[in-house]
Design a protein that fits this description.
The chain is an alpha+beta fold. The chain has one domain: Protein of unknown function DUF192 (Jelly Rolls, Sandwich), CATH 2.60.120.1140. It is 26% helix and 39% strand. The strands form 2 sheets. It has a 7-stranded mixed beta sheet. The protein has a two-stranded antiparallel ribbon with strand order 8-9. A hairpin with a 5-residue loop joins strand 4 and strand 5. Helix 2 packs across helix 3. The longest helix has 26 residues.
């Protein structure tokens, strides 16, 4: 089964594959041409450790946010270009997204992480397929948040890639999990 992570830091939300196997952790976003705005890769090392991120095989610039076991931001590395020197940090998790998307994320901010399981046979190394699923979930969350906004008057933030919801996210996650379960049946 594939897992999709939803990462919320300061009401900015990214969705993407939850990567935790040795193969997933070593491949990451290497040799992926690009990812859409609002999409990330969420890496779980399994325990607090010294993480060294290598971007030698990256094809586009990244922002990298490192999180401790309690999801506190411990380091933000912005605009890391392909071929840059390795980046090291003591953390349990890290999140990679397009350069510029972590603007406003600071050390000591707290991330809210949700994991959804998508049925089917895992495609361990097929990161692009997982990112497409994350984009569909993100668009579904955006549409659901817009529907919730009309009844709960939640604030919706707009950016160049579409809409991002604020405090309605918990209701939306319930809708997404129900949708995922229906797809599995």
């Amino acid at each position: 089964m594939s897992r999709i992570a939803t990462v919320d830091i300061n009401d900015v939300v990214w969705n993407g594959p939850y990567l935790s196997t040795i193969q997933e952790l070593s491949e990451g976003l290497a040799n992926v041409e690009s990812i859409p705005q609002g999409v990330c890769a969420f890496f779980d090392m399994g325990a607090q450790t010294v993480i060294t991120v290598t971007v030698q095989e990256m094809l586009f610039p990244l922002d990298i946010v490192f999180l401790d076991e309690d999801f506190n931001v411990v380091q933000v590395s912005e605009n890391v270009v392909p071929g840059a020197p390795n980046i090291s940090c003591t953390a349990r998790y890290f999140v990679e997204m397009n350069a510029g998307e972590a603007a406003g994320v600071n050390v000591n901010d707290v991330a809210v992480i949700s994991i959804a399981t998508i049925g089917g046979t895992p495609t361990n190394s097929d990161i692009v397929s997982m990112m497409s699923t994350a984009m569909i979930m993100g668009m579904t969350m955006m549409m659901a948040s817009m529907m919730i906004k009309s009844t709960t008057q939640e604030k919706v933030f707009a950016d160049t890639g579409g809409s991002i919801f604020a405090s309605a996210r918990d209701d939306v996650r319930g809708v997404l999990l129900a949708e995922c379960r229906m797809q599995n049946d």
